[in-house]
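Why this split exists: single-chain examples teach little about how molecules sit against one another. For that reason, every record in the complexes split bundles all components of an assembly together and asks for one structure covering all of them. Below is a record exactly as it appears in the raw files.
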Amino acid sequence: MLRREGDIRIPSGCAIAAIMNRKGERFNGQQILASIAAMHQRSNGLGGGFAAYGIYPEYRDYFALHIFYDDDGARQICERYLQHHFRIKHQEPVPVRQSRRIAGAPLIWRYFARPREDKFYREHIGEEEFVARVVMTINADLRGAFVASSGKNMAAFKGVGYPEDIGEYYRIEEYQAYIWTAHGRFPTNTPGWWGGAHPFTLLDWSVVHNGEISSYSTNRRFLEMYGYKISLQTDTEVIAYAFDFLMRRQGLCLNDVVDVVASPFWSQLEEEKQARLRRKYSGLLLNGPFSIIVATNNGLVALNDRIKLRPLVAALQDEFLYVASEEAAIRVVAQRLDRVWSPGGGEPIVGLLHDKKGLLDVAPSAIQAAQSA
Amino acid sequence: MSLSMLTPAFTVERNQDRCIGCGVCVKQCGNSVHHKDEDGFMWVIDKNCVGCHRCAVLCPTQALAIKEFPAALRPNSYWSTSSLREIYAQAETGGVLLTGMGNPRPFRSYFDHLLLNASQVTNPSIDPLREPMELGTYLGSQVSSLGEREKPLLKLDMPIMFSAMSYGAVSLNVQKSLARAAREKGTFWNTGEGGLHSDLQEYAASTIVQVASGRFGVNPDYLNQAAAVEIKIGQGAKPGIGGHLPGEKVSADVARTRMIPAWSDAISPAPHHDVYSIEDLAQLIETLKVATNFEKPISVKVAAVHNISAIASGMVRAGADIVAIDGFRGATGAAPMRIRDNIGIPIEIAIAQVDQRMRDEGIRDQASLVAAGGIRNSADVVKILALGADAVYIGTAALIALGCHLCHTCFTGRCNWGIATTEAQLSKRLNPELGAVRAANLLQAWEHEIKEMMGGMGINAVDSLRGNRLMLKGIGLEQHELDLLGITAAGY
């Protein structure tokens, strides 16, 4: 029997893309759909997905939990678990458009919820840490349930199929977002499990990833030491957790995170601080070929491995930032571009919302503290 | 005295057609195997031969061959020839059997049951001749937060250091060779417990000094000029017992370095008499940190014994910055044979268990892990790093590079290769200039090989090899062994 993702590690190749409006103005999913569809040949129909930020303004203060269920029994068990930990404001099945090209879809529900205060106060942790632990527990321990996304005012729409078909299935043209990211997957071997598709998420973080992390086991074992439950055995999962760990829990700014995960070579380090970061977090150096787009509510960062073993192109036009595996995927949605460039290895492309400029320079938890003050 | 029942271990065969009677073999053999009569007749005493091959290597006409003595006892798979020989020897002397170097018994080598990974298609392998390939390693605690002062660290250009071998157990020329090689290759050598000879102080920045139970040669200068201080609790060849450098090896020079009277026995007690518990170790670590103004990482070296993961965890909690673990193949200048051959556990298992235990307890960042004892080649280095070590110590391999032929008779002090001896006539056979080149060559060769293996895995920094157990697969191992090593079987 084929073992599914989580039981075995499956390397995959991919296409990635992102479009962001830096003013925070929202636009629907048609452009990102066209962009990722232009790279059809980079995926093989065994995985596609999208992350969208700004889509649930009416529930902006609630964690939006998108959950896959194998069957209704799993849903009932998981909902009991959710009710135990959350106050749920609203819940419903995620609307989908049936399609001949999509098969084997799980039950997909979404919940807008806030953690029960007594639960996380008792554990002396913040609500984000509480939600992160609940999500990891569901994914690791509740059979037949998988949390596809868990951030605020965002969601991941993903599944088994070509990305353009997945987008059509989820009706993403009906959502308005200021950041869209997309992924088309080319796994080498998979029985097709919806949880294994990208983007991979935790809280507001979403990651789409092309490549294979040779340092996977080192990174995984480092993160496990800090309580992360690695349930999928995908490289992408450890990238999401690495960003979460370094920014939310260690309080690093984005530039420092880049210096950890794609550290310059010892001989090219410019300042002592970079060397210190590399020594302290050497277990989180991402090695091997990758291009990734990591997004959060404030913006996104696109990054190559430090010797650029995977393609990554960026472009600017007015307020729009485009990122993709291939330039063609940008040209197909934006003919006139102010600037197109291919970043070097380990050189991040950072897209920040104008009105929140600099916010990615501090950790998200610090942002929240500032906002609530 | 009754007749010795021991047959020789080796026989020396001389090809008379080749022998020119030059007498090199007579001069070279410190064990009085070779003799030459006044009339030029050459003859040998086989029973004196230890199998060190000095004569055979130096014979200008390759006239000598050393062979196992054809004792041809009745075959017995239980009572081996060596078990008989050991009983004969003990019946003659009433003594403990002494031996040197590491455990030679045919226990399973886990290194030989581990296979490494390489990239194909989905991940490009990296050519170390075309791309940077980083072996730089820092040893020490990484727990201080970015706002605090960083704890003292050892910076290694490659994750290989020379094991502790004391002056007295080995010749000064061995230490000179290793010290020079270590400085040249950006790594460290270790004094062992015999103090730091005045000739070696120029290499202090490449030196790890030991504080062992005998406290030989320990003084404030000794501690403060070194790069790091290592508390030696035990060693893989003789866990649980101390050391004994016989008085005849304690020359005036050795005595001065050890700060003891010449020609007196140098006894290292089995335990440190101020460390009877883990809290005592914490105090000794703190004492050494204070004595070195908190500027040196403190390493603690122990033998790999049955409950090593709990011990190592305790050492980290006691403040050790580096935990050095010596596996049961680790060598020695002298140890009781029964101890060497029957005590301890393999370094592969010990490192796998300790690394996992430290992660489970969330303290892996508090200390680096150094593996020692039986590292034979660069593939062993790569495998033990992937199991979880930060760096390795090599001792036997380094001595072999200097000429050791593993005759296991270091304890006699008559090492014909000038290695395990303090006799001036024998010591000078090892030229430290040439020795340094050979030791540095070995490091350089392994460095190249490690880079090739890492490149094949698609890894360009040793940071990403450390603890990367997915790069290892087991072959011919039982499930419980795979579980202990934290890996899966080949093909799985």
